[in-house]
Amino acid sequence: MLQNYVKIALRHLQRHPGYSLINVLGLAVGVAGFLLILLYVQDELSYDRYHDNADRIFRVVELIEGAEESSSQPFPTGPTLAEEFPHLIEASVRFFNLQAPSLTLVHERPDGQTRLFSEERFFFADSTVFEVFDFTLVRGDAATALDRPNTVVLTEAAARRYFDEADPIGKVLRFENEHELEVTGVLAEVPPNSHFQFDLLASFSTLRSSIYAENLGQLEGWYWNPAWTYVLLDANTTQEALEAQFPGFVDKHFHPAIKEQTKLYLQPLPDIHLHSRLDFEIAPNSDAAYVYIFSVIAFFILLIACINFMNLATARSARRAKEVGMRKVLGAHRGQLVKQFLGESILLSALAVLLAIPLVALLLPVLNNVADKALTLGDLGLLLPLILIGVIASVGVVSGLYPAFFLSAFQPVSVLKGGPSLSGGNAAVVFRKGLVVAQFAISIALIAGTFVALQQLHFLRNARLGFDKEEVVMVPILRTPVAEKYETVKNAL
């Protein structure tokens, strides 16, 4: 019986190739659009969740009333918190980038050549960074890599940039043309779904021993707040338990000029990418509103595709009335007819979903280029087959229910005589027209929203700024060789 249903379904598709192609292709495009947006949304929601202790890692935030709400802290905040509340905090770590847009590193090759690099993703970090975060060292010992001053670890890509395929461990890089940093480890690439990226991490103790040695007050003061500070809470404590200690902590340590206006609180690590819009963010963040908007758009795209699929299915159903009448005359039961039409509908939706997969693979490079991501279908994991099966089942069943029950209810005598009422009555007509109206209304809303967004992007790119941006360049000079000859360079330009 099942084989017979499949034969009839395939025969019907062959007899009406135009209808079949439009129906399958329309649903395939809708499913592909839904999957592409779902990949983007899933990636946005996954930021920083790859850390095993992501639910226990928090960033310490400083609110100075009337001044700023800062994502960074004074230098002593992290170590002092860990020292005073060891029963609440397992470890703390600080990141600092000298507040420079880029930093210079020099590598002198064995052949006498000198390579100079301007690094925008260079940070100083405490040796506890590997206790708090799951950054993997593929070479070197995580327990000691950043213990000593003047040491640095770098990612695999940075290691190839400096040393090609040679072993970088023990090699030396010259920082800002003054300080030598020994390479003590090589990191696996930082996952792209991290709220900040880095290529090199130098030991925080390097600041105290050399770079800031002449001005230790900046590293010990409680006023300047340039260090991004994270804490790993003890497994048996809570965010609220530590935050309850903050008022006394601020009153005890912070500078008298600001402690009356200063409040500290904890920001969960997974919330930073989508929910943080603080001053001095370590890197630009996204916004949860975009996730909500794209999620709604994905739902509406799939809904439009399903409505289109259902409309085409019901529009063709009345043309098969005589086929139904003849099969009933030959002894077919209503249940058999229902199974047949539902099977045909599920078969069409399955073909559409199978076609959607190569469409997604074809369009993913475009999405990755626009969104600056590296998404793959594999990112959905086990969610992908569940989604595909769900779409096949829901779309196939819902779109097949109406023609299945409507046609299977025909009386053979009335149908074969060409009797009236093949439209299903007023209720069926209203239902079909309602689907069409809903489909066009949603389409118009999405098109209008797209047009407004494009107009806004065009405005941002072409608005008059009061200067000719094509004729203006920015040259970072802080702590670079250019700074020593600034006036000469300026006059020459």
Give start-end ranges of low-pLDDT stretches: none
Label the overall shape: elongated
Strand coverage percent: 5-15%
Strand pairing plus helix content: what structural class?
A: alpha+beta
Distance between the termini: 85 Å
Average of the residue pLDDT scores? 85
The description of the largest β-sheet is: 13 strands, mixed
What level of helicity do the residues show? 40-55%
Radius of gyration: 32 Å
Per DSSP E runs of 2 or more residues, the count of β-strands stands at 13
Helix count? 18
Descriptive report:
It is a single chain. By secondary structure, the protein is of the alpha+beta class. Helices cover 50% and strands 15% of the residues. The protein has helices at residues 2-15, 17-45, 77-84, 129-132, 156-163, 205-211, 217-220, 239-243, 246-253, 272-275, 288-317, 321-329, 334-371, 383-408, 412-416, 425-462, 481-484, 486-492, and strands at 57-64, 68-70, 89-96, 103-108, 114-119, 122-125, 137-139, 151-155, 172-175, 179-187, 200-203, 228-233, 262-268. Strands 1, 2, 3, 4, 5, 6, 7, 8, 9, 10, 11, 12 and 13 form a 13-stranded mixed sheet that branches. Strand 1 (57-64) and strand 2 form a beta hairpin.
Features:
493 residues; alpha+beta; 13 strands
Give a nutshell description of this structure.
50% of the residues lie in helices and 15% in strands. The protein contains 18 helices and 13 strands.
